[in-house]
Amino acid sequence: MEYVCDAPHNCTWFRLMTEGEAVAESLEMRHAVDKHFRREWQRAAETFHPTTTVFIEQDINKEDHIRRTMPMFLTLRDQDGTALVTAMVLHKGRTGSGCIVVGPGNADPYPQHGDAIAALAVYCGMTLDRSSCYPYRR
Question: Residue 98: inside a domain, yes or no?
């Protein structure tokens, strides 16, 4: 995981960097972020175009391209490392829809962690409001 930003109440946002981290997040949080991570990784990988025809060099910069292209997958952790919220958001400056913010078991994280989600929104330079980012609202 990679540090992203601090949040209120001694919490911290981290970026999930690998499929293994996404799988562990899915297991701990009881949801399917790993499925979304794999799908977005594949989409980003399909847009990569090697800068050389030399076979052994064709994957140079592929990982960087994927990280820049796919949405960021994030986890909010407390000071004990417990996962509290999972988010999928676009990179700073990118426009479009598709953000998802969920709690354990796809529960609504906004009532308990709205201030932490707001801190992430400031960091990302975008709005992460409940109406557009929580997909299971009733």
Answer: yes
